[in-house]
Amino acid sequence: MIAQAHSATLIGIEALPVVIEADLTGPIQGDGERYFVLVGLPDKAVQESRERVRVAIRNSELTFPNKKIMVNLAPADIRKEGPALDLPIALAVLATGGDIPRSELEGTMILGELGLDGAIRSIDGAVSVALMAQEKGFRRLILPEMNAAEAAVATGLEVFGVRSLLDAVELLNGSSLFAPVRFEASVNVPEVQYTVDFADVKGQRHAVRALEIAAAGGHNVLMVGPPGSGKTMLARRLPTILPPLALNESIEVTRIHSAAGEKGRPGLIWERPFRAPHHSASHAAIVGGGKNPKPGEISSAHHGVLFMDEMPEFDRSVLEALRQPLEDGVVTVARVSSTVTFPAQTILIGAMNPCPCGFKGYPEQKCVSNPATCGKYAGRISGPLMDRIDLHLEVPRLKVDDLMGGTDGEPSADIRRRVLTARAIQHERLGEHRTNAKMNPREVRETVALDAESEAFLRTVIAKLNLSARVYDRILKVARTIADLRGEPNVRKAHLAEAVQFRERSEF
Predict the structure, then answer these.
(1) DSSP secondary structure string for all residues of 415-448
(2) Distance (Å, rounded) from C-alpha 281 to C-alpha 327?
(3) I want to staple 358 with a disulfide (CB 3.0 to 4.6 A). Which of 170, 173, 353, 415 is the partner?
(4) Cα separation, 208 vs 229, whole angstroms
(5) Within a domain: residue 192?
(6) In this structure, what CATH number is given to the domain that contains residue 236?
């Protein structure tokens, strides 16, 4: 007889649950544990689950059937990967042997990796699995206790966290010691505390203003300045002035980090991501990929900040791969077996020196790079990528008086209040969670109506700086954000002039 354990994990291809069928084919002579067969395209990790399941059942003081065991992982034409199938395989075997009522497995999704002592270890992608279970109509989800808090956001099903195989058996046998994990926004949403603040920044008012505009409108930024001018310090403080993550944004961020295997704590992620990959990072590490595609740094920075320090030092192919995600907000990784699309709505903050030695154009220290080397260095960031960066600014070194005797900067909390007000205006105009940087050309035309003076000014700027159509649109978007920060309904010449000044260095 076949016991169908409707137990599953997220395979990642078509989001299909894995139905696990266990069949005891009859008594055998000798040790039945040697006759434990898995079929249905299991990979090496799933094949090895036979030993983990066998030892975990025995160490949990449960009875391993002394019969030939055939386990089928359906659908049979999709490769099964990872150790998260350990627990459902073990429970299917126990159900077939009579240790668990088979009816208790109906409508239940189960996943978890087993230790040899029967303990259940955490798995990747718990939020995605829970949402898939809800979508597929499952009534119950059983998974490792460490993953239960994040999976509980799927409010349409009962989520149970278990610590061991024995706990799972007792739960399925009707024990009253287990209660479903509930998610309550009023209880489960913590206040994010940052260890850095814009109040620490002395001087650099121009740069702080640019980052305020970037936070308000979701604009990309490139900072150019000599070593030690504060570019990294400024970038690391940008998340402190971004709005708090909404519940749906937190779920998206958690799903990405969980799928990438980076979740180190239970529950949802509520802090805006800040990713700062080293310039030696590979193409797959930045945009995603691998044999079984996983999110890259640009997706891990979804709803947060991707900081690329020493930007020209990144491989040219890596930089060029950013062009499409920065434009569309998604990155698609294509493989022969499948195509996976990851979200990538992030604010890019680039930082670079003006030349290899770092002092071109600064009288404080002589530049030792020759003109050819300087030109080659600057040319590592292509024109099309530059076009997709809205704000270009110089970050000079501080003077001694500013460094030692200057006043503290404006606190992040004060800047964030203005950012929140500007974002609220944008959400009312464009829809929830959309910013000016993501406006399409039609929306730009509708929201940025120029008067005669502003139009004449912009015509002069376009002709003088030889701007591309993309840069023209981005100047209008930045100007719209500046107007929103000032609470003004119309874009005027003053807003355009401030937006244009953030393009001047890169265009001359």
Answers:
(1) HHHHHHHHHHHHHHHH-TT--GGG--HHHHHHH-
(2) 22
(3) 353
(4) 13
(5) no
(6) 3.40.50.300
